Every structure is written in C-alpha cells, then in structure tokens.
Amino acid sequence: MAQYEAVIGLEVHAQLLTRTKVFCGCSTAFGNEPNENVCPVCAGMPGVLPVMNDKVLEYAAKMALAVDCRVNPRSVFARKNYFYPDLPKGYQISQYEEPLAEHGRLEIEVDGERKTVGITRIHMEEDAGKNIHSATENVSYVDLNRCGVPLIEIVSEPDMRSADEAVAYLKNLRSILVYLGICDGNMEEGSFRCDANVSVRPVGQPEFGVRAELKNMNSFRHVHKAIEYEIRRHIDCLEDGEKIVQETRLFDTVKGVTLPMRGKEEAHDYRYFPDPDLVPVVMDKVMLSRWRSELPELPEARKRRFMAEHGLPAYDAEVLTAERDVADYFEAALAAGAEPKQAANWIMTELLRELREKKVGALDCALTPQKLARLLKLVESGTISGTSGKQIFAELCATGADPDTYVKDKGLAQISDTGAIEAVLDEVLAANPKELERYRGGERKLTGFFVGQVMRRMKGQANPGLVNELLARKLG
Amino acid sequence: MKINPDDMARIANLARIELSPEKLALFAGQLGDVLTYMDALNAVDTADVRPMYSPVSHHTVTRPDTVVKELARADILAGAPEDDGAFFIVPRIV
Description:
The structure holds 2 protein chains of 2 kinds. By secondary structure, chain A is α+β, with helices and mostly antiparallel strands. Chain A folds into 3 domains: 4-287, no CATH class; 298-409, no CATH class; 418-475, Arc Repressor Mutant, subunit A, CATH 1.10.10. Chain A has 16 helices and 17 strands. A 9-stranded mixed sheet of chain A has the order 3-7-8-11-1-12-13-14-15. In chain A, helix 1 crosses helix 5, helix 2 packs antiparallel against helix 3 and helix 8 packs across helix 10 (369-380). The longest helix of chain A is centred in the middle third of the chain and has 20 residues, at 220-239. Chain A starts with a strand and ends with a helix. By secondary structure, chain B is mainly alpha-helical. Strand 2 of chain A pairs parallel with strand 1 of chain B.
C-alpha cells in the first residue's frame, strides 16, 4: 500500500470584542432580544453609508503583529455578493485583493516536535445575522443582531500534516487572540470558528490532491474528528481508484462523519469588487508602532519564561499559559508566597477541574491566588495533609472561606505533636502483642497495620509522615 | 467580449431575476456591447499603473467605538413586509 500524506490549511473567523459593530454604532452585546441591536446601516437600508470602527482596525492590526504578519500600508474593502436573508444588503463587506496583513507565522509543537505554520493573510470583515427555521410553519425567522459584528479571518498556509497539528495550531491561535483581549475565543457560541481544507497525496508527490472544505466544527474535538475522518475517506477513495470531488462538507457531530453540502447551498459566485462606499484603509505608521508596543507578553514567550524563571517542566508551563487568566492566577499565587511547582500542581489538577465544573474564570474564583498560597502553606507545614487539602478544595472555591480559619473551625489540623503521637503508638503496640511479635519475626508489611491503627485512634488527624517515622524509630 | 444567452441566464440567476428567452437574448447582446466598449481600455498599457480602488483621494475615516441606539426595534421591523414583533419573517429558507 502506498504511503499517504495529508495536507491541511485552516480558515479561522474570530469575532472581535468591540462594543459596537464594524460599520455602525449598534451594540454587539450577545444575548439581547432579537433585532434589538439593529439600525438602518446594518439592516441594509438604501442610502446609508458605513463608517469604520477604529477599534476594529486596532484589534485586527494587533493580531497581525502578534503572528508576525506584514501589515499592508493600504488595504481595501470589497463586496462579496450573495443572497441570503441573514445578509440584508445582499453582500458582505470583506477584504479580497488587498487584505490588511499577509505573510505571518505561528509556531506549534506536537509530540515534542516544533514546526512553523505560515499565515497567508488576515483580513477584516462583517458577520452575518442568524436564521431560525420554523419546525411547523413554512417560514424562517431572521435576527440581525449579529449582522455587522466585526470579524477577522485568519487564513493559514496548507502547512499542517495531521489533525493533531491542526488542533495545536488552532489552540495557539485562540490563545493569542484571548491574550490580546480582542476575542473571547468561545467556540460553542461561535466567536471562534474554523473551516478546514483537507487533501491527501501520496508521499513524495509535489502536487496537492483535490481538497474538501470542512465546516460545522464547534469544538477542538470536532475539528480533530472531522479531519481524521476526512483523511481516511480520501485515502479510501485513492486506494479504490475513485475520484475525489472538490466540495464543501459538513461535519455531522452525532455520527462523527462528514457529508457533502447540497449543491445549491454551495453555488458560490461571489463577484467580489471594491466597495465604492469605503475608501482604502491607510495604516498610520505611528499608530502601528504604538499598537506594537502595547502587545502583552504572548503565550509562547510566557511559557518559556515560566520554564526559565520558575523551573517548570514544558508540559506544566504549556498548561498554565494556555489561558491568560490561569497564567495570571499562577503568578499572583507565587507573588503571595506559593512555591512554583506546588502551585503549578494544585492549579493544573484541583483548580482547573473546579473552574471547568463551575464554568468560572480563574480570576473570578472565590479561592483567590492569595488564599491558594495560604492553603499550600498549610499543607507544606504539615498542618493539614495533602489529602485533606484536596478534600476541602471545592468547598474553599465555592465559599471563598479563608483556609486558615476554615481548617481551624472544622478541626482539620493534623496532629504533628510527637509526644501525642508517641503516646497513641505505645497504646497500639501494647494492644497488639501478636502483630508486634510477627513484625519482629520479619513481617515488615505489618507497618501499614500499625500506622492504620494509630490513624484510626487519632481520627485520621495524625501527620502520617510523622507516624511512619516514629514507628520506624520504635521498632527499628 | 461576447456574452451568450447561457452566460446571461447565469447572471440573471445570481441576481435573482427571471428573464424570458427573448429577454435573455436581448440583454446578452446589450451587455456584450457594453463589455466590448470596455474592451477598448485593454488597449492601454497599464503595466506600471497601480490599481485604483476608489476615485476619491482621501482615505478611511474612522469613528470611536461608542454605542449609539438610533431606532427602536419596532421602527426597524416596520420596514419589513412581515414580522412578529421580534423577528423578521421570510419564506422558509431550508
């Protein structure tokens, strides 16, 4: 069997976190009543004129700078023509021949291997509204609240060779957008959307195979499954000598397969032309250098700094820096005196699980970084065991209780008083003469039995390390 | 440039207009004439000329990102043939 290679390119649409739409002053607030955020401009009334939102330009340019794009000194808006009720003008304002920025790149890492993925272009455009199709009547309902909300489209080069690489690219891209504070990165609500172009070719063949465009993937897991499925489908076709058709396919989330879109929905003939209502966007050099100076420390740089400064392993640094607020939380905990590796462990396991379950952001958690630092101190000093620290973690996150007070009120402090433990240990040894004899006869595994007995008599509050140590000393 | 009735039918379809075969032939001829007229421009050597996207010389003016609520929802919906007080209603799409 021939060896095959997949070729993947991605198109990402990111909704920008501006207060108003790209060409009118309507609010972009999500979840308002239908058609509440609509004006004559975004409703496509005759005679209105679009006026560009300055924040859209700033946010788009910042993303371009963050991924090393060349920002074009001049870019042009174009009309992309198609009829659909969610687009009342009959065209989407986008950029075509002269986009905002080109020739960028993004580093990814899969299984320890680093790779650079090229970014072809980044351009600005407007989102369309939403249609709801009635189940019972022969009508569709249109909500134009989203119509005109600013988007940037980020197009990659066909540089990825596996679903893993595609997902790594998407995660890095999303992370940068969130770090810049220009997109909330929510895939389920559609503020970060992705289409994938997938083709397959025999290894060594320089030309690309025929590609399929995949849509309707609203999580990283879906993207991964859809691409894997599509690669297998192409290989099967090639093996069977079938012809692959260039088409758009939708991912069926239930069945886990991709299916062709119906021909009619796919009939694209956008007839792009420069929008006569909008003059070219000229990029001011002074503004551009100011925006460059305003870029925050980006995830990749922060990851490397966490490794160098705090001695964290690459994996920990990656997990902690994937979300900006988690990285901020970590650094705040360190500032409050937490030990880096301890803090990393507790954040990656306990905190991230709580945040996921309760759907809260790290910095909104009632267990503040300062309180986490105090909790870690309690564990480190042996006041409470690691196990009870984990047991009370959820409660601390839910109530925001002060760890010191909580541990005192609940009587959770473990007994690290040598005298008290020794006294109980003596009782235990005296009460179990047979076991003591067997132990002295060489049955070392009875250590566990004695420790267990001490813990039971002390209601689990004895410091287990200390119990072991004292036992070894007494019996040794 | 020649436009045949098939090209014309495709253009009409994209523009969502229905044309009789007679009209298709008529407009194909007329549109062809317009394009032939434009063809004269192809005689000009534009190799060193930068494409002009707008006849006006100034460039984009931006506005601050401040919310302005211009009209109430009822006013916006009033411009549509059919609505239910919240949504625009259109013939079923899918």
